[in-house]
Amino acid sequence: MKTILKWFFGALLLVILLAVIFLLSLDTILRVTAENRIRAQTGMGAEIGKFHLGLLEPVVSIKDFKIFNPPEFGGTPFLNIPEIHVEYDRDALLKNKIHLTLVRFNLGELDIVKNEAGQTNIFSLGLALPQKGAADGNSVQLKEFKQRTGLDFQGIDALNASVGIARFIDLKDPRNNREQKIGIDNLVMKNVKTQKDLVGLAAIVALRGSDVFGALVDQKDSISEIKKIFRF
What we know:
Layout: H1 2-24, H2 30-42, E1 45-53, E2 59-68, E3 77-88, H3 90-94, E4 97-114, H4 121-124, H5 137-149, E5 152-170, E6 178-192, H6 199-208, H7 210-214, H8 222-230
Parallel strand pairs: 4-5
Antiparallel strand pairs: 1-2, 2-3, 3-4, 5-6
Helix pairs in contact: 1-5
């Protein structure tokens, strides 16, 4: 469960970071600049189909946002996000605070990739759980977000989330490849500020994608590890 929460909370902060980049870069090469910054910060290629930055209204809209794995994972797709729609509090932004009144986040596809060396992308790319003894995961991620942007994350009044499918891709043995439909459409969560506020969403994703997430561990340990995922 903690792993699923970290993935979604990390993805959420990445979305907000991208929105901040849009807000602070009002030039004609905004899309290319954002793609290059994502590549520089994560080592992963990025493509943005369309974007709209409201000049008269506090809205950021992004369409067809894709992130690709680095070469060691075959350059395969990682995330396919058909839509991100963000509405924010302009007054809070003037005080160096991020207060989002609405976020519509559609994760169409998540691809977990195991390369020929046996490494899995979500762990090798720094998306695994914090090490034991580290500070609380929420505090760590929020601190990193403030360091990158100089802004305090105040929360999301309403998060409308959709999740399409999850895939597991084994580059060494394609016979292990699998795909599951998550099928979450417009699940609304109120007052999202930390990972704990995403427990409901994470539980549904874990249940509906158990076959894919179970592939992350050795077969002999899969039952015990999956039980840990569902433990609150």
